[in-house]
Amino acid sequence: MNVAPRDGVAGQIPDPAVRTEVAHLRAQQATSRASAYPSQGDAQAALRKIGDARALNTAALAQDPAELADGE
User: Of all residues in the chain, what percent are helix, strand and coil, respectively (each to 5)?
Assistant: First the structure.
């Protein structure tokens, strides 16, 4: 079992690649949920969900270092 002391973990910086993947998955889930609304006749709800996905992506991009933002 890998256990790190709490004070050793406290100063760690979250991995940008992991944060980006989590944001991608959340945005993908929001987009998937949005796809159900038009068939139910609720285009506004679909647009809100797509807006939520866009906000997640924008927030993730703002937190990532510049070297990841350009795809390198």
Answer: 70, 0, 30
